[in-house]
Amino acid sequence: QRSHAAMSSPGVRVAADKIKVLCLHGFTQNADIFRKRTGSIRKPLKSRVDFVFIDGPHSAAGAFPDSDRAAADADEDGDAIDSVGPRAWWLVGENIAAAASAAAAAALLERVTLDGAAVAAPAPAAVTSLPTVTTDGEAPSEASPAPAPTWVRPALSREMRGWEETAALITEVVASEGPFDGVLAFSQGASTSALALALIPQLA
User: Structure pTM?
Assistant: First the structure.
């Protein structure tokens, strides 16, 4: 760590160097929103602290389902997202896998011709078989369709996707803007800061 103050003679303190703090926004926020949110903190410290705000490497657009449409167009606290769009330090692996499965299922149900016209996939060939009955002589009910994949709220996810890109970004920022004396972070950014301090030696 850098020394931020020195004594030139007994009782006389020389001007200290400004410290530098890396700032990591929350999930679905971005650097500009976090900068605005921290204005009341930064203003009294502007002569002593340089705050460096960066955007997460991943787009968080579509991170919420249609039932949470308001959240999809705003950050965690409901503030409208600016032109940069909602960003994230990592994405929910369970939801990415569910989206991939849904896309694969849709591809099986529909083909697209060369001219772009949608054509329904051919129905499976009919199979001749004897009717099935239960032991009490009643016809069994039709099988229920497979349940739709369950959407996982980001805060409850147990599968993180995209950490490699985040680690590379932070390493690059430390090399170009550092060294940093501390990290100011919120929500997913706070989790990111803990991981970064543990896994990126250049930041610690």
Answer: 0.67
- Segment 46-79, tens digit of pLDDT: 999 999 999 999 999 877 765 554 444 455 555 5
Distances 165 to 28, 52, 57, 106, 121 between C-alpha atoms, Å: 17, 19, 7, 29, 38
In a domain, 204, yes or no: no
* Both tokens assigned to 114: 């060369």
Q: How far is CA 89 from CA 72, 148, 166, 172, 190, in A?
A: 16, 27, 6, 15, 10
Helix intervals (H) in 129-186: 163-177
Residue 1 falls within a domain, yes or no? Answer: no
CATH number for the domain that contains residue 58: 3.40.50
CB 55 within 8 A of CB 170: no
Q: Is residue 26 part of a domain?
A: yes
